[in-house]
């Protein structure tokens, strides 16, 4: 990789890091990335509102390939004294998406200097953390007839530079369930005159282990209690309403949906038993991110050719990643590049490791 481009990419990453933006609010980030590409390339750039893409036209009619980076940061304080630390209170790039964007921008610069057969698309996606962005950006796949999509995620854990990948589920599917129970409040001395949702909520929480143990699932499933809130801090009033927040997760999307149905049915039956109303709303819906075997083989071959160590992950990542939306519309794969013994992503001490930018760009280049 050209050392000047690498230097520019690292500087860009630090700029993005200092001005993090939450999911769906990546206005400055999007503009800065477009400006960077306009100044340094002659690529065609198309703004799609919340996100944008750049295209390097190829000289053949072969189906296009795409690479994707996510632009959003996380609602978390920065606890490391970086010279380019976040200037936005309570928001920081704690998932390394600043690094994903810098690497993709560098790939665009590198690609522009080379001959490429097919068209190459560079997708700068919004709102990965909420699972909304890829669902919207994936429309580009059909519009442009894109054949294959690749993305990477930085990850601490293994030695720096080790690539992790697996065919099939790479990241689990998940969704947030918010149950709102509505009963009737009463004077605390006359609780029998009200309808208190405490018992339905307690029974729902107690039912979770059984609901997840049912062996009708093809892969692993989890249901996590996120929050339980009930009544108010007033000893004179028996609770009249309550809320339960759960996250359902599954190695397979189908299982996650089946688990959601089972939890919903249990909530409904406990509510009916106690004369309560219950309403369910879904949040942060993530698909299963399933890597295509053929695309995984290409990443393996690229890493072998480049001499990068690669391991086949025995299990999928439990955490979700919305890249699965692209892989429902086209072939593709997401792979990890490890950064050694650093604080994990989504923790206050985390910072993206600039030393893997070159590796990401080199692997992507080999896939074109
Ligand atoms: Zn994240
Ligand atoms: Zn991430």
Can you put this structure into words, describing what you see?
- Mn(2+) binds at residues 95, 97, 129, 153, 346.
- There is one protein chain.
- The protein is an alpha/beta fold and 368 residues long.
- The chain has 2 domains: 3-170 and 288-367, Zn peptidases (Aminopeptidase), CATH 3.40.630.10; 173-286, Alpha-Beta Plaits, CATH 3.30.70.
- The chain has helices spanning 3-18, 27-40, 97-112, 133-137, 139-144, 198-213, 253-273, 293-306, 324-329, 357-367, and strands at 44-47, 52-56, 65-70, 120-125, 148-155, 163-165, 168-171, 173-182, 186-187, 221-230, 237-238, 241-250, 277-286, 289-291, 310-312, 331-338.
- Strands 1-2-4-3-5-16-6-15 form an 8-stranded mixed sheet.
- It is elongated.
- One zinc ion binds at residues 95, 129, 345-346.
Features of the shown structure:
Bact_exopeptidase_dim_dom; 8-stranded mixed sheet; Alpha-Beta Plaits; Peptidase_M20; 10 helices; binds zinc ion; 16 strands; Aminopeptidase; 2 domains; 4-stranded antiparallel sheet; alpha/beta; metal-binding; single chain; 368 residues; 26% strand
Radius of gyration: 23 Å
How does the helix and strand content classify structurally? alpha/beta
Largest sheet: 8 strands, mixed
Q: Which band does the percent of strand residues land in?
A: 25-35%
Number of separate structural domains? 2
The second-level CATH architecture of the largest domain is 3-Layer(aba) Sandwich
Shape: elongated
**Distance linking N and C termini:** 15 Å
CATH class of the largest domain: Alpha Beta
- Fourth-level CATH superfamily of the largest domain: Zn peptidases
In total, the number of strands is 16
> Mean pLDDT score, rounded?
97
Q: Point out poorly predicted stretches.
A: none
Keywords: Hydrolase, Manganese, Metal-binding
Pfam families: Peptidase_M20
Organism: uncultured delta proteobacterium
Binding site for Mn(2+): 95, 97, 129, 153, 346
């Amino acid at each position: 990789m050209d050392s000047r481009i690498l230097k520019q990419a690292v500087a860009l990453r630090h700029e993005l890091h200092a001005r993090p933006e939450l999911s769906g609010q990546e206005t400055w980030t999007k503009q800065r990335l477009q400006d960077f590409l306009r100044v340094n390339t002659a690529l065609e750039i198309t703004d799609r509102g919340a996100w944008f893409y750049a295209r390097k036209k190829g000289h053949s009619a072969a189906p296009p390939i795409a690479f994707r980076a996510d632009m959003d940061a996380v609602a978390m304080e920065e606890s490391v004294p970086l010279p380019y630390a976040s200037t936005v209170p309570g928001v920081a790039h704690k998932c390394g998406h600043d690094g994903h964007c810098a690497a993709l921008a560098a790939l665009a610069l590198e690609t522009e200097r080379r001959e490429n057969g097919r068209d190459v698309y560079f997708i700068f996606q919004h709102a990965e953390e909420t699972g909304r962005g890829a669902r919207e950006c994936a429309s580009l796949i059909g519009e442009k007839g894109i054949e294959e999509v690749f993305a990477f995620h930085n990850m601490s854990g293994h030695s720096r530079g080790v690539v992790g990948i697996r065919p099939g589920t790479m990241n689990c599917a998940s969704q947030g369930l918010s149950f709102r129970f509505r009963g009737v409040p009463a004077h605390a001395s006359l609780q029998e005159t009200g309808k208190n949702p405490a018992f339905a909520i307690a029974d729902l929480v107690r039912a979770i282990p059984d609901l997840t143990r049912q062996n009708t699932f093809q892969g692993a499933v989890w249901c996590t209690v996120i929050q339980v809130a009930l009544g108010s801090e007033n000893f004179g009033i028996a609770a009249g309403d309550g809320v339960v927040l759960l996250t359902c997760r599954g190695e397979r999307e189908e299982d996650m949906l089946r688990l959601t149905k089972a939890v919903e049915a249990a909530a409904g039956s406990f509510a009916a038993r106690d004369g309560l109303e219950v309403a369910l709303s879904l949040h942060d819906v993530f698909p299963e991110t399933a890597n295509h075997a053929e695309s995984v083989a290409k990443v393996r071959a690229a890493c072998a050719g480049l001499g990068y160590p690669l391991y086949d992950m025995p299990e999928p990542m439990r955490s979700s990643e919305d890249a699965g939306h692209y892989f429902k519309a086209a072939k593709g794969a997401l792979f990890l590049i490890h950064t050694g013994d650093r604080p994990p992503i989504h923790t206050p001490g985390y910072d993206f490791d600039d030393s893997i930018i070159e590796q990401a760009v080199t692997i992507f280049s080999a896939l074109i």
